[in-house]
Amino acid sequence: MGVKRRKFLDTALDRVALGAVVTSVVEPSDLWSVVLSLSAGEPVRPTPTDPGGAVSRKRTADGYAMTYEWTDRPGREWRLEFPVERSAYREAVDEAHGYLSGFEAAKVSAHAERLTAALSDASATDEYARRSLPESVRLERAIGLVHSLEYARDVESTGASDYIRTVEETLVDGCGDCEDLTYLLVGMLSQPAFGYRTAMVILPGHMLAGVHRDDLPPAYADAPTLPGGTYVAIECVSSRPVGDFRDDPVLAVYGDGVEYVDRSAIADAGREFLRDPTQFQTVADASAEPPG
User: Fold this and answer.
1) Cα 100 to Cα 176: distance, rounded to the nearest angstrom
2) Can you give the chain as a three-state secondary structure string?
3) CA atoms of 64 and 83, how far apart (whole Å)
């Protein structure tokens, strides 16, 4: 069983060992899930989804049948059914990632590629369901899917103070924090269906996606670029126009290597930026270099 989910199991077993009343603390189905996890070496089941939310999940013989329903920023409504194999979810849980490796893994994720291809079959309730979609509509559809997933702080959804979800985990859990949702969008936009050059953009205590300005559709020609002038920001936890993001200093932009670093802003942000310095070692090293 993956160490990333072990805390959930330990908590459930501790409750039983302490003599807690199972029906009031751990539902029988949850307890049975824990028992199955022990016997089968399978991680504890995914984070529960909100029955009234945009994501629904059904367990199948070999995985999870996911259904996503969302409205993009211009107001178009979409629906997508997408399966994720249980073995893929289990492998994702067992594979620990840091910030940089999580970003790189998302860009080559097979499930991100499948998801992006499946988006072409997402159904709409208007005329867009009956004709080829402009690239700008496809982009807003992908962004809208990410925005529809529930924002969840790591400590509340995983029990860990800092946890990097893979694309597969975010899709099945139906939630994530700013890093998880950024990696999901980066994963989709990096696939051949879009072929965008992508970046992760780091603000104090926050992350968002960046797309190379030359790769965006003409509709976004006037979108402001991030510091460094190469990438355009896309918020992944709030619905903002492409290029608009929360009013905080941009500390670093990491695309194909470090593209931009604001050393003075990093110094001011301190621990809020480097919550785990080992995970941002590449950026930290770059920020320590003297100006060229």
Assistant:
1) 17
2) CCHHHHHHHHHHHHHHHCCCCHHHHCCHHHHHHHHHHHHHCCCCCCCCCCCCCCEEEEECCCEEEEEEEEECCCCCEEEEEEEEEHHHHHHHHHCCCCHHHHHHHHHCCHHHHHHHHHHHHCEECCHHHHCCCCHHHHHHHHHHHHHHCEECCHHHHCCCCCCCCCHHHHHHHCEECHHHHHHHHHHHHCCCCCCCCEEEEEECCEEEEEEEHHHCCHHHCCCCCCCCCCEEEECCCCCCCCCCCCCCCCCEEEECEEEEECHHHHHHHHHHCCCCCCCCHHHHHHHHCCCC
3) 6
**Could you report the per-residue pLDDT of 37-66, keeping only the tens digit for each?**
333 444 456 888 877 789 999 999 999 999
Contact 273, 248 (CB under 8 A): no
Please compute Rg for the chain using Cα positions: 20
Span 62-117, pLDDT tens digits: 999 999 999 999 999 999 999 999 999 999 999 888 888 899 999 999 999 999 99
